[in-house]
Every structure is written in C-alpha cells, then in structure tokens.
C-alpha cells in the first residue's frame, strides 16, 4: 500500500493536520484547497481513518497547477493537461479513496458548494499570489463555523501569502510554515 511519503509533492505540516483531526468531532467536515497529486490529502485521510471519527473530507483543486508556477505547469503538460488521474490513482493506491470527495474546480467555485458555517476545518494551499490568497480567504471564511479553523500553507515562503493573510485576518497563529485562524 502506498504511503503519503511515496507521492510527489510538498508536505511539511503534519502537526497542523494532526491537531485538526485530534480536536474534530464525528460529523465534522474538512476541506483541503490545493491538493496537487494528493500527498497531503492522503496524509489527512489516513489520519481521519485512524481516528475512527466520521469526518467528511473534500479535496478541491483544478488539478492544472498554479498559473504562476512553471514547474507545476510542466508536470501538468506531461500529464496531458491535468494531474487529476494521478491524484485519484495515489488515493486508490493508499487505500483512502473512499474517505475523500474530490471537487474538480477552482477554490472559489468549490467554496460555493458549502453552506455558511458548515465547515470545521479548511486548509488553503492553492495559488500563492496575493489576489488569489485574499480571494480564497474571503470565499472560505464564511463557510467555517464558529470555533472552526481556517488555515493555509506558505506564510513564510511567499510574501504575498503573508500580506494577504495579515490584510484580511490580522493576527494569526503560525506553525510549520502554516497560518492558523480560529474563527471566533
């Protein structure tokens, strides 16, 4: 069986996902925005399975890479325009396909699939431009329930991410290069 560590991509925030699963209750809904080939998705799904909690988990991505990341676009071209089939294969090979509900769409389109206040945990790791991160936060924040978490990756990697997060949310907690905002 394939492990998350066997999947190409980036993932260095296991503690953030472990914390989310630890505090979750059965019946909660999680969303991961920006999944690439499923490395972090497989990790989170495997932790949900291990917890034995009934958590609905959605993975939102265009599976076409970030338009401003040429290395991703090259990989997408090698996969005939989309890494979605590789994503599905990686989930299947890791035995977690039944735990993940993929939504093949943009972040903003995906946010429209959820009612306000319905989500316990949303993790954003899609396009890293200021405009995209700001739009993602504004689209997903209303979907997070009171006491829920809106978080994302690369706050220390991209100035654009830090500026968007600070501009919309103000002060956030930082862990493992991730920003974490608990909705009050």
Keywords for this structure?
184 residues; alpha/beta; Rossmann fold; seven-stranded mixed sheet; 7 strands
CATH overall fold name = Rossmann fold
Number of domains: 1
Give the number of DSSP strands. 7
| CATH superfamily grouping | Vaccinia Virus protein VP39
> In percent, how helical is the residue content?
25-40%
The CATH class label is Alpha Beta
Strand content: 15-25%
- Structure classification: alpha/beta
Mind describing the biggest β-sheet?
A: 7 strands, mixed
What is the alpha-carbon Rg in Å? 15 Å
What's the shape? globular
Strand order of the largest sheet: 3-2-1-4-5-7-6
> Helix and strand string, N-terminal first?
HEHEHHEHEHEHEE
Poorly predicted segments: none
| N-C termini distance | 40 Å
Total count of helical runs of at least 4 residues: 7
CATH architecture group name: 3-Layer(aba) Sandwich
**Mean pLDDT, as a whole number?**
96
